[in-house]
Amino acid sequence: MRHLMILMLILFSPIWGETVNSDDGRPSCSRCDLHLCCNCSYNGFTSIPVVTDQALILNLSFNNISMVTQDDLTGHVRLRVLDLHGNRLAAIHPTAFDSLWSLEELDLSDNLLTVLNHRWFSKLEILLQLNLLNNPYSTLGSPPLFLGLVRLRRLMFGGPDLKELRKEDLSGVTNLDELTVHGSNLARYDSGTFGNIWPLGSVILSLYGPLLTQPMMAAALLDDVCNPETQITLLDIHLKESFSIQPFKESIRRIRNLSVHNLLISDEATVSLMALIDGVPLRSLSIVGLTLTGEGRWETTNWTDLRSMDEFSVSDVTILDVLKFAMTVELKFLFQYQKKISFINSKMFLLSCYLTKLMVNTQYLDVSDNLLTDLTLSYMVCDDVETLQKLRVLNISGNPLKSLSALSHLATKLTRLTHLEVSRTGYSSMPPSCSWPSTLRYLNISRAKLTTTTPCLPKSLQVLDLSYNELKEFVLVLPFLRELHLSGNKFLRLPPGGSYPNLQTLTIQSNTLNIFGLSDLQSYRRLENLEAGYNKFVCSCEFVTFLRSQLVGSGDIKIKDGKHSYVCDSPLYLQGVAVGQVNLSIIQCQPVLFVSVSCGVALFLGMLLSVLLWRCHTFWYLKMTWAWLKAKRESQQRRRQRNMEGSEPLLSYDAFVSYSERDASWVENFLVPEMEEQSDTDSVNPTAPLTLCLHKRDFLPGHWIMDNIMTAIERSRRAVFVLSENFVQSDWCRYELDFSHFWLFEAGGDAAILILLEPLSKDAIPKRFCKLRKLMSSTTYLEWPQEEDRRPEFWRSLRNALKRDDEQEN
Ligand SMILES: *[C@@H]1O[C@H](CO)[C@@H](O)[C@H](O)[C@H]1NC(C)=O
Ligand SMILES: *[C@@H]1O[C@H](CO)[C@@H](O)[C@H](O)[C@H]1NC(C)=O
Ligand SMILES: *[C@@H]1O[C@H](CO)[C@@H](O)[C@H](O)[C@H]1NC(C)=O
Ligand SMILES: *[C@@H]1O[C@H](CO)[C@@H](O)[C@H](O)[C@H]1NC(C)=O
Ligand SMILES: *[C@@H]1O[C@H](CO)[C@@H](O)[C@H](O)[C@H]1NC(C)=O
Ligand SMILES: *[C@@H]1O[C@H](CO)[C@@H](O)[C@H](O)[C@H]1NC(C)=O
Ligand SMILES: *[C@@H]1O[C@H](CO)[C@@H](O)[C@H](O)[C@H]1NC(C)=O
Ligand SMILES: *[C@@H]1O[C@H](CO)[C@@H](O)[C@H](O)[C@H]1NC(C)=O
Fold it and tell me: Which residues form the signal peptide (predicted)?
């Protein structure tokens, strides 16, 4: 029953979708990564979820947490970062953070805290960064909040509701890297509140209201933070009349580095401001978001002394009354001293020679993201007067430029130029040749529309960026080039390295490279860093093997862009697989080797088998068995036929003579004459001639030799074997012998007669002729005598042996 209740409780829990901790109904969050960084933001939590005690970073931003109770964070002794930005926190228990001994960063910004309590921070002794921005508290409260935070380096507080800053509010804060105060509605500032913080690296102030309505108070505040070492950033300033400048009157002399974000200024205020900064040691002035409400009537400012100012940068300029705006003042005062000048994104369509010839000290000029065209840009250099002779860096990116030859024409006049950046322009082609200042080292034409490159590019370049164009190849010789950037083009191959003997860095990501190999890389003699990911790699074995070895850093070249960016595009079954993950088998990788090795092995085995079979005379045995079977069958057939006809076996020869061709002369000269002719030598007992069957003479032409042999043997009463070395060598004889042996066996008589033409020891006969060997031991054989007088004796014996049975009986 209890279980059912718990189940119901879980099922109908209002915080559906979160895991519910069974202890006290708190949700839990387990989205922690390997580094124990738990990202629980955007999860709809309404209270602090249960998270592992081991967490180092706990991000609870953008939830709907309304309070932090006493126990919510107990046990998180390892937590370093706690982010509660963007919740609906209205209450935090005084001891809620007490167990967070390791906390270095706490973000409570964008919540609903109306009161701040010093007890929250009393145990956070090593806190480095605290963000209390944009909560509806009107004071920091007392006792002083930050008293115990001796290691605090970055502090952000304030918001639209902050009304008061009292002298003791910042006690305990002694030095800061960064202080951010939003006091747009600040009504009270006790002079000296920020005065004890030193050093102070950077101050970001939003003092919109005070600057307009309480200049004395704002001045006091600025006075406290403005030091030569401190970088001052002012947000949202509206300077309408001359007296709005008053707050800066004292402090401006102590500022070296001033940055203003979102400045709205009238002509009157501009003139006053110029008067104010006349002769001050301000080194750097940067304005991001400048809105000019006047008509440019700054005549009286022409004597302003800005000789201390090295850098002047303005971006995102808006002129409200652009039709009436006409800068009538001679701007020499503004430009003659600066080393660095930037006019970025300011809708500037003309940079006239009149202006640039004032820039006698300018080394760096950035006019990116304006409306300069080839024509209006050409006015940048005067024809008669030397202009911009100290310029080293020129950035005209993001202007609607089209002609690279116009640019080159312009650049030649800038004799010290080393860096030229013309990204995001409309260059689509290159003239065949161009001239450039000999000093040019760095050229950036990325994100243009170039389709080809020509020797227009200067040989002196050390860094060349042609990323994100439409190039297919790059074959220029640039002997001094150290960095080449070709990402985002349409390269199929790496450019030939021989043309860039000094190249150290090559980036060629996001092209259509299929493959590259060691030889490609080796052609670059000095290459150290390569980025070639996000290409359409064909994962051949060669490539995979090569790249893997490169990725683990076995070569001299570092692959900078990480394994994950090298992904196979083909073959299809490997598409999307990281090259490091590909496993290819040997069959895929070495097909030629594989086939040749397997063929070789097969051939070797075949040969081995053949040798083995040959050694065992298997072929001979097979041939013999086959012939034997065939002969047996056929002879049986014939016999059956004869039996049916009732006739006697047809014997037409007395003997079949089996001999080797090489012994034919003996057979023809001795045997045949002696046997087949009427013998007169022995007149006492004249013998009838015998008929012999000789294959040479008696075989029917046209019949198969096997058949001939078989019929011959069948039709002969006896078989005479003329044995000699020659006989043993000849296969046919062997066959005949074999067959006859079978026949003998069948016939059951001693039908075989062996004649030894030469002494032939039994051992000289190969072992496989076991039948012949057997025959030689079982049957008496006749030896052909070499002595002439013993021959009649031999013939007699032979004749006896060949005698017909009936004759013998007689
Ligand atoms: C944390 O998670 C949220 C929601 O899933 C996601 O939108 C956000 O980008 C993540 N933040 C970080 C820093 O990873
Ligand atoms: C927080 O709650 C409000 C209403 O109570 C809701 O509109 C909002 O979407 C919630 N925010 C999140 C991140 O869940
Ligand atoms: C917490 O998450 C938000 C949104 O995901 C992110 O903007 C913020 O930087 C993260 N905070 C920290 C400390 O990482
Ligand atoms: C001014 O401060 C900005 C931001 O801290 C810094 O980048 C810049 O180098 C500083 N300029 C000078 C001249 O000190
Ligand atoms: C400023 O301009 C006035 C007239 O407009 C001129 O008389 C005066 O010499 C100029 N001063 C300087 C320093 O250029
Ligand atoms: C303009 O080019 C220079 C030199 O390359 C560079 O330092 C600067 O950041 C560029 N400016 C912009 C706005 O990209
Ligand atoms: C070239 O310019 C682009 C865009 O302005 C920039 O992102 C890139 O880093 C520059 N290249 C080099 C090598 O500085
Ligand atoms: C290749 O093998 C490795 C380890 O043996 C494995 O992690 C990986 O998933 C395999 N890759 C593919 C595409 O099967």
Answer: 1-17
The Å distance, Cα 34 to ligand 8 centre, comes to 22
Among the bound ligands, the one closest to the CA of 580: 8
Residue among 444, 456, 382 at smallest CA distance from 414: 382
- Residue 292 burial (C-beta neighbours within 10 Å; 0-12, 13-18, 19+): buried
pLDDT in tens, 301-348: 888 899 999 999 999 999 998 888 887 777 778 888 999 999 999 999
Domain endpoint, select from 330, 360, 375? 330
User: Same structural domain for residues 569 and 497?
Assistant: yes
Are residues 356 and 445 located together in one domain of the fold?
yes
Tens of pLDDT along 664-698? 888 888 888 888 876 555 545 556 778 888 877 77
Which atom in ligand 8 lies closest to the alpha carbon of residue 581? 11
Q: Which residues span the domain enclosing 291? A: 245-330
* 721 within domain boundaries: yes
Please indicate, yes or no, whether residues 490 and 554 belong to a single structural domain of this protein.
yes
Residues 671, 691: Cα–Cα separation, whole Å: 11
Task: Identify whether 16 is part of a domain.
Answer: no
Q: What is the CA radius of gyration of the chain?
A: 55
Distance 63 CA to ligand 2 centre (A): 7
Residues 669 and 803 occupy one common structural domain: yes
| Least-confidence region, from 21-25, 48-52, 97-101, 387-391 | 21-25
Q: Give which of 51, 108, 62, 58 is closest to 80, Cα–Cα.
A: 58
Pocket test residue of 399, 418, 421 for ligand 7, highest count of atoms within 8 A of CB: 421
Is residue 583 in contact with ligand 8, taking CB distance under 6 Å? Answer: yes
Q: How far apart are the CA of 203 and the centre of ligand 1, in A?
A: 30
Residues 482 and 563 in one domain: yes
Q: What distance in angstroms lies between residue 92's CA and the mean position of ligand 3's atoms?
A: 21
Whether 645 and 765 map to the same domain: the answer is no
Q: Pull the structure tokens for residue 586.
A: 């040997």
Cα dihedral sign, 646-652-656-661: negative
Domain boundary among 299, 330, 361: 330
- 88 in ligand 2 pocket by Cβ < 6 Å? no
Examine residue 714 and state whether it is found in any structural domain, yes or no.
yes
Structure tokens at 330: 């001679």
Q: pLDDT digit string (tens) for 731-750?
A: 655 656 655 555 554 554 56
Neighbours of 9 (CB within 10 A): 12
Answer yes or no: do 772 and 747 share one domain.
yes
- Please give the helix or strand (H or E) that residue 332 lies within, else none: helix 332-335
Q: Binning pLDDT at 50, 70 and 90, where does residue 282 land?
A: very high
CB atoms within 10 A of CB 154: 17
Joined together, the tokens standing for residue 516 give 């590259």
Q: What is the CATH number of the domain that holds 399?
A: 3.80.10.10
Main-chain dihedrals φ then ψ at residue 244, nearest 5 degrees: -65, -15
* DSSP one-letter code for 563: G
Residue nearest to atom 5 of ligand 6 (CA): 421
Nearest CA to ligand 8 atom 6: 581
Flag whether 639 is in a domain: yes
- DSSP string computed for 6-18: HHHHHHT-SSTTS
Is there an atom of ligand 6 within 6 Å of 393 CB? yes
Q: Are residues 663 and 751 in the same domain?
A: yes
More confident residue, 705 or 743: 705
Residues 467 and 445: beta-carbon distance below 8 Å: no
Find out whether the beta carbon of 352 lies less than 6 Å from any atom of ligand 8.
Answer: no
**pLDDT classification of 482: cutoffs 50, 70, 90:** very high
How many domains does the chain contain in total? 5
User: What are the pLDDT digits (tens) for 515-549?
Assistant: 888 888 889 999 999 999 999 999 888 888 888 88
> Does the beta carbon of 634 lie inside 6 Å of ligand 4?
no
Protein residue closest via CA to atom 1 of ligand 6: 395
